[in-house]
Amino acid sequence: MLFVEYEINNYQLLATDSKKAIELFPDQYLPYYLNGIANQRLQNYEAAVKSLKRAVIMVGSEEEFVVQISNTLGDVYNSMKDYPNSDKCFQKVLELDPDNLLALNNYSYFLSLRKENLDKAAEMSLKSNTLEANNPSYLDTYAWILYQQKKYADARTYIEKAIAAGGSNSGTILEHYGDILFQLGKGDEAVQQWQKAKQSGEYSGLLDKKLRDKKMYE
Asked: Which residues, in sequence order, are CB contacts of 35 under 8 Å at separation 6+?
């Protein structure tokens, strides 16, 4: 039942029913994990952390599940802007599973958003793209790291690869493409991509200002 609620994205019901499952089966990790996911999606981050940390304890030494839970916990801590704990979670995942694609991509992308440890971020992102070629999300991450390093021509190469690989419906990728084009002195083309991002319904809080003033904001 909990998995059905997860699959249909009914996170409020999942939060309620997983809490009941925890009361009935307090020694099982799965209800804690699903409760953590539900509260993450509901942006109840403190509750999510509490359940996910409990799930890690309950799962014991089963590395596969420790990796899965720690990846989610890293995302939650990042949403809370608790970056030290977020980084620790992703580092733990990569110690146990150095080729974990989710951790390689998410950790490197979060670092790029903070403009921190960009060389390390680039190394991890390039590895994820080597392990899984033509993934638009991974290509976008690498392009954005290059953007933050002010390597705009290289960033354009990779963002266009992301779009060709299926990222043309992603507002985030299209907005990134516009930002890169703007830095390359192609303002009109940048605005076109920002407009596409706006139409997709997925964009940053700065996009309206970019479109209004036809200039970059970061």
From this structure: 14, 15, 18, 19, 22, 47, 48, 51
DSSP 29-45: HHHHHHHHHHHHHTT-H
> Into how many domains does the chain fold?
2
Cα–Cα distance for residue pair 43/37, rounded to 1 Å: 10
Task: Please give the pLDDT value at position 159.
Answer: 98
- Whole-angstrom distance, CA of residue 181 vs CA of residue 14: 42
**Are 180 and 161 contacting, i.e. CB atoms less than 8 angstroms apart?**
no
Q: Which domain holds residue 17?
A: 1-98
pLDDT number for residue 58 = 92
pLDDT, tens digit, 9 for 90 and up, residues 86-129: 999 999 999 999 999 999 999 999 999 999 999 999 999 999 99
Say which DSSP state 75 is in.
H
Report yes or no on 59 lying in a domain: yes
Q: Record the pTM.
A: 0.91
Q: Which residue has the tokens 């596409």?
A: 196
Distance CA 146, CA 19 (A): 43
Over pLDDT 90: what percentage of the chain? Answer: 94
Written in H, E and C, the secondary structure of 110-130 is HHHHHCCCHHHHHHHHHHHHH
Same domain, 91 and 125: no
Question: With 90 as the cut, is the pLDDT of residue 61 above it?
Answer: no
**Where among 98, 133, 158 does a domain terminate?**
98
